Every structure is written in C-alpha cells, then in structure tokens.
From TrEMBL:
Entry keyword set: Hydrolase
Gene Ontology biological-process entries: nucleoside triphosphate catabolic process
Domain of life (superkingdom): Archaea
Name assigned to this protein: RdgB/HAM1 family non-canonical purine NTP pyrophosphatase
Family per record: Belongs to the HAM1 NTPase family.
GO cellular-component term (any): cytoplasm
Chain ranges passing through the membrane: none
C-alpha cells in the first residue's frame, strides 16, 4: 500500500514512514493546504485530508497538531503552527512568565482519506513548558518536557515511542491493518 503524507514538514513524514513501515510505503509531498479553523484538531486534519485528496486523487495522510496550555486558557490551541511561526518558543515563555502552572498538552489528529474511507486518529501527550533544552526535534520540542526530558532531548526513536503524533500514527496503523485484512477477506 502506498500513501502520500501531505505536509511541509519532512520530519513528520519520516516519523510516519518509520511507524507505518511494513504496512505502507509513505511518499512525502509538500503542498499548500488552506488553513482551516475549527476548535477540533480532528476536524482540521480531516478537512486537510479531503482537500489533499481532491488535488492528488490518491490515498493521503494529513495531520494537525495543537498545543493546549491551561495557564493561557488553552492558547495556542489549534493555532499552534501559526504561533510557533510568529512568536516562537520565546514568545510562549514570555506569555507564561509568572505562571506557576506550566502544564501543557499536545494533541495531534492524523487523517487518512482514499476517496471512500476516511479515518481520523488522535494522540495526546501531557507535559509541561520549560526553558529550552536539547538540540533535536523541531517546533515546540525544546520547551515541552515529559517525565523530566524535553522532546528535543530525546532521540528520534525515543520520541517516536511516546509522542502525540506517534500515538495517533500507531492508532492509524492498527486501523489500516484491520482495513487491509477486511479487503483481503
């Protein structure tokens, strides 16, 4: 099975290829997708997949990720990519100055669409916002700590075992495997 992961982030495509290895071959395509605005990560991911399929006409995976910080009333939420691009980690840390509650949750929606079947799997991971540490990863990884270690301090393999995206991709892998078994029966 060949699936196109539509994302501008090659790290995400590599992570998906690793998790879906043996089940699906992942092709990476970078494409501008209109930025959808919903309160739900799953709705945004599903809308992106429908759009990507309408252009490419082949099975696709898209994703969307939100960072939800209770001390900031859930900000940046579903606007995490825009906030990362505009104020970055330094801006988030500035906004959090003076807050004792540093908790945060990452949520990713992974959407598959092949023109007939659509499935959205989500993954969440809880952590806290800290002063940047580590030199791997991307985006919020240096400031998002889980069990004393930031995502940027983890190897790619370690991160792929526990990340919000990995949880969503593993759920998608399970669903795809079941769909393939059904198709072959």
């Amino acid at each position: 099975m060949r699936i196109t992961f539509v994302t501008s982030n090659e790290h995400k495509a590599r992570e998906a290829a690793g998790i879906l290895a043996g089940l699906a071959e992942i092709e990476h395509v970078s494409m501008d997708i209109p930025e959808l605005r919903y309160d739900s990560i799953a709705e945004i991911a599903a809308g992106k997949a429908a759009y990507a399929f309408s252009v490419l006409k082949r099975p696709v995976i898209t994703d969307d990720t939100g960072l939800f910080i209770p001390a900031l009333n859930g900000f940046p939420g579903t606007c995490a990519a825009y906030v990362q691009k505009t104020i970055g980690n330094a801006g988030i840390l500035t906004l959090m100055a003076g807050f004792a509650n540093r908790s945060a949750t990452f949520e990713t929606g992974i959407a598959y669409y092949d023109g007939v079947r659509q499935k959205v799997c989500t993954g969440t991971i809880d952590g806290k916002i800290v002063v940047p540490r580590g030199c791997s990863g991307f985006g919020y990884d240096p400031v998002f700590e889980v069990d004393g270690v930031t995502l940027a301090e983890m190897t790619e393999e370690e991160k792929n075992r526990i990340s919000h995206r990995a949880i969503g991709l593993h759920a998608l892998r399970d669903w795809l495997a079941e769909e393939l078994r059904r198709d072959q029966a």
